Amino acid sequence: MERQTTTHQKLLRAFLTVVTAAGLLLWLVAAASVSLDFTLRDQLIFLGLVPLVVSASLFPNIFPIPSGLKLTHEKVIFTPSDSIVLLVACWYGTAPAIFIAGLEGFLSSRRAVRRVSSNIFSFGMMSVVSALSSAALGAVLRYVFDDAARGSRHSFPAAAVALLAANLVHIVTNTGLVSTFFALRKGDAVMRQWKKNFMWAVPNFLPTSAVASMLYITLQYNALVSFIIGAPILVGLYLGHRQYRNSVQERLDAIERAQQERIHMMDKAHRETIEALAVAINAKDEVTHEHVLRVQVYAAGVARLFGCTEADVEALRAGALLHDIGKIAVPDYILNKPGKLTADEFEKMNRATRSR
Predict the structure, then answer these.
(1) Does the residue 253 lie in any domain?
(2) Is 265 buried (19+), middle (13-18) or exposed (0-12) by CB count in 10 A?
(3) CATH of the domain at 349
(4) pLDDT (tens digit per residue) in 21-34
(5) Which residues contact 113 (CB under 8 A, 6 or more apart)?
(6) What span, in angstroms and rounded, lies between the C-alpha atoms of 91 and 101?
(7) Other C-beta atoms within 10 Å of 273: how many?
(8) Is 84 inside any structural domain?
(9) What is the pLDDT of residues 202-236, one digit of tens each?
(10) pTM for the complete prediction?
């Protein structure tokens, strides 16, 4: 088992290294392409889009990942920024999209986690995701619609279909990489992790391409029109995600409350059964009356002095009630006999004690 855990840890480190290195290489190539193949005006636009994308990511909808009927500490984050990155890929091409997505991934991760290794991995992963989704978008435009132009010269059907394809690749790549990370960390199968943790999240990613398509139409007029029409769309996407998140949270909270209520009822029934047995023991034993209750008080007090948890104290209280349960099997004439027991009576007492 320990050897298997070590193997998974090595595979996880290798996975993190490969993704980070691939993302860094892709981003450097994209940055070089942006600096060499685009005009200064376009470069300033790209730099101006970075704070816009980062600002969009300031309004995340955070979904704790469910595991069965409970929520885990792992989270999936939805932001409107992916729509802007896809729009950049459709309007300007692959390199600017990778350039912006990598920076957004690093800055968003840095805002949430102050750990450089995690920030760099997020940077690399988002660069890889953006590269593959942008490549899919370009392939659809070139090979399906025979359209290799840039900017506003794509027809709307071509742009919409290409953005949808890019979004699907984005979903598969993003959730696939994160599922692989969890699978290697937990020693599980990738597909099992994806089905358990991310299959439910796929519908929430799908509106991204629709939002990017609407933004693409508005951008053909001017930036002001794009903002006037695009801002409400992005706000609507954010509110829709938040409403879905809240409904999921409410359903899981209701299920958890019902489970806790059932556990409370079972615990109450169990405790009442034990107390009934303790009452039967007290009623049967006339010599050491209420001895069971005194032992319970002493046991709980000593446990608290030793710093035991409340659960341990409750367990000791239950044990104290039952520690003399063997008396129930002892005949009354032996249990309440004032004098010394005979050998036969003593043997009967021992048998009852051993049968507890």
Answers:
(1) no
(2) exposed
(3) 1.10.3210.10
(4) 999 999 999 999 99
(5) 119
(6) 15
(7) 10
(8) yes
(9) 666 677 777 777 777 777 766 666 666 666 766 66
(10) 0.62
